[in-house]
Amino acid sequence: MEQGRPVPLDTTGQDIHAEADKLRAMGPATLVELPGGVRAWSVNSYAVIRDLLTDPRVTKSARNHWPAFINGEIPPDWEMISWIAMDNMVTAYGKEHVRLRKLVGKAFTRRRTEAIRPRVVELTNLLLDALDAVPPGEVVDLRERFAYPLPARIVADLIGMDEAALAKTATVIEMMIDTTVTPEQAMAILGGWRDAMAVLIAGKRANPGEDITTDLIAAREEDGSRLSEAELTDTIFAILGAGSETTINFFDNAITALLTHPDQLELVKSGQISWEEVIDETLRVQSPLAQLPLRYAVEDIELDGVTIPKGDAILVNYSAIGRDPALHGETAGEFDVTRPNKEHLSFGHGPHYCLGVGIARTVAAIGLSTLFERFPDLTLAVSEDDLQPLPTFIMNGHRSLPVYLTAPVPATASV
């Protein structure tokens, strides 16, 4: 298939699902234009993505396999530079990826997942206690007051970051996922998060704790190899960003879906449907991670008549996978907790499968179940159509989530 002019992606993320449907219909891989005029191959079907995520001819290492980056064609102030300039297991390839994943995997033990459960319960109740003080009928931004602080503080606890440091890095993370930033902002983002992580690591070297940062500082392979300073810095930030931002958007999407499908919410409240099924159906139809930059072709890759040339960039659309009609039929775009097949790849697939899946599911189940138990009359304060998407094609969520925690007090009729 001959490819013409690349399709410019909507950097404002106004309708990522409609965009994915359009690109999927164009073929197994479609040439798109990213910010700065950079080109990549967009893949939007379940079958193609599942194969590519396990294909050894596909890498996430720009420094090894993206000629445009290696040759300096990608400027240091490229709008998405932070996503490819990292030096950690997310961007490693082959033996280096195995080495780094093995080191980081030691920090995500089953013991740590279980040990964090009481803290998740405690923090969930603290946040909901604060919401109890909101006067009846007052609009609350549940993204700001609950969906953000719960996972962000849990991940901060895991890496040993205090609230002051978390607040400083929050702005950097928000700018990093924003695909409308300027080149100047992109440079500031890269320097900002690396400086913040350097301060955190220095503090943990001086005062070790029971946290992942301390574990990674002390991590050693049997042959004595360890994380380099750059790998350590970039790994800690990757854990913070991936562990918090995706779960924030998960809560946002799950709450929205349940409030706009009250009949299905009743099935959950009555125990006919489990919270685990809610989690998977939300991840299927509204993957919190939309499109993750970037992967690269180590060799020419043939995809049913389309050739992705060696060295070209690949953009995997996770939000398109669970909505693929080839996997879930004509109702693939509909939220349905009774759906028997809720297959998705929102935690990844293959060698880059999410290490923190156990912690993420624990936070999701406790957070959702407790929220709806404490506030059974929770309702949206605006129509679903009025919810504004985040200005990005990387993440899938809303700028805010305005709700009524309790039924609004009826206005007193004038006599």
Automatic annotation (TrEMBL):
Family listed: Belongs to the cytochrome P450 family.
Species annotation: Sphaerisporangium aureirubrum
InterPro entries: Cyt_P450, Cyt_P450_B, Cyt_P450_CS, Cyt_P450_sf
Source organism, top-level taxon: Bacteria
Keywords assigned: Heme, Iron, Metal-binding, Monooxygenase, Oxidoreductase
PANTHER family given in the database record: CYTOCHROME P450 YJIB-RELATED, P450, PUTATIVE (EUROFUNG)-RELATED
UniProt name for this protein: Cytochrome P450
One Pfam family matching this protein: p450
